[in-house]
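queue> holo job accepted (arginine)
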Amino acid sequence: MEKISSILNAIIKQKFAVGARVRLSENSKGGGDYATPIAMELAKELGKKPLEIAEEIIAEIPVDASFTASVSAPGFINIVINGADLARELDQKWSAKYGANDSADGKLALLDFPSPNVAKPFSVGHLRSGNQGWAAKQVLERNGWRVITDSHLGDSGTPFGIWAVGFLKLSNDQKLAEGGVYELGDVYIKTRKLLKEEADLGKTELADEVQVWLKKLEANDPEAVALSDKFTEISLKHLHDIMARLKLSTDYELGERFFLQSAKELVTKYAESGVFKRNDDGSVICELDDVAKKFKDTPLLLEKSNGTVLYAATDLATATYREKEFGPDLVIFSVGAEQKFYFEQLFAMLARIGIKAKNIHMYFGTIDQVDEDGKRGKMSSRKGVILMEELLDRAEEKARSVAKENVSGEDVKKIALGAIKFSDFMADKKTNILFDWDTIFSLTGFSGPYVQYAGVRMKKILDKGADFERVGSSAYDFAAEKPLIKLLLAYPDLVQGAANDLGFHKIANFAFKLAGEFNKYYESTPILNAGPAEKSARLILLAKTHQVLEDALAILGIELPASM
Ligand code: ARG
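queue> job finished
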């Protein structure tokens, strides 16, 4: 493609004495492979009709160029490439790590995901953070970044206080041993309810107790530490079980609690030096009026008047720690869109204290569902949030029902995860996604299982042709293979682009297209039954297609089952 644009650019420069910027795009209509609207773009500047300009340009294309061109109204130049040339280009660019590059040159990125709150069982609320964060890791690594992943657990702050109060009032060690994280979740929800009832009556007795526990934990009071350890152990075990089921992991889990002490110290330091402001009531804020109008009257609150430090303070300590320990060039927070304003404020504060890393809030919309009355809303059940375990159990049931009978349990899990994860990437992450069981498992539509199925088919053919000796790939003319080859050629740019815009849905789209093109190809072109030259060429291309499909899915955290 670059070759074509540069030939066209040179012709335009030589003929019309203007610098051109030919952009080639996929030609879906005109029958060619690519098309460019350059003649239309130049028409005004040159004072000529686009059609005329286009004709003049293509008349100059050298006969030995590896493509031919034609003109269509109102002035498009359509390019047809020789399939064998495309195949040769693919061969030249091919490697075991096709799609990867080292453009980031070992720069360091730190990714913050899925960072759940340990007060409750892992819910679908942190599913997107995990999926998107994981994809970011995969994409950055393929672009030459070093990546550190850190799950910033919500393991202190108010939830701990609520737990401590609730546990002592409503639960006990035996219940906790039996119910584990579900008992904790229960205690949390019930205590929140009590707090609300109390607040409605204008009372603060329980709320004060919550604060007392928070202060105790901050002061390293042994009883508070013991309780916190107990809760943390239970919820960590649960968290790790779920992460393993999701096939996600992070290098670190430095939660809020880990930063409480240093948060307090840093807030005090910056309050004394005047970067922050200590109010008369003792609370500490960071005023950001000068940064943006929208921050006026809503300073970032770091410490409450009673001395407890808040989310922003632990994040301040976290950023400081990360800079000192790891020195990342880039920090990406994979967190929902609800926290957009918060992160804008946080980043403004971090810039003020001189944190060097570039910060990105990689936000995403909610997971919605249509309820029985046909109303769309955030995914929930009658009991409230949907727990990851419920979702995974149900997905595995569903996967079992779409898979053939003899498919292994491991493969069923891969299909279940394939459906759930792929749904996260069906549209730009900033939009809310609509979760629908039938859609995400559809074997004929835009779904994980559909793409997986194509991959499984490819592998079956490759296995059957494994013993066949494959020689060179340019021996064949590759007309039918062109759509596949073109897609494969586009993959490296796609991966590179994704590192810049973090638009992983484009990878999902690509995988879907590749699967579709393969299916078409497979239905129309014999592979194993073709003559030796064709068979060889086709198997070589198929192996490449399979590798790229597998890699694209791996970016999304999806594995190919052995059968389905
Ligand atoms: N635990 C937080 C939540 O669930 C997300 C934490 C994101 N990371 C951070 N450094 N603030 O809302």
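queue> The two ends are 37 Å apart (CA to CA).
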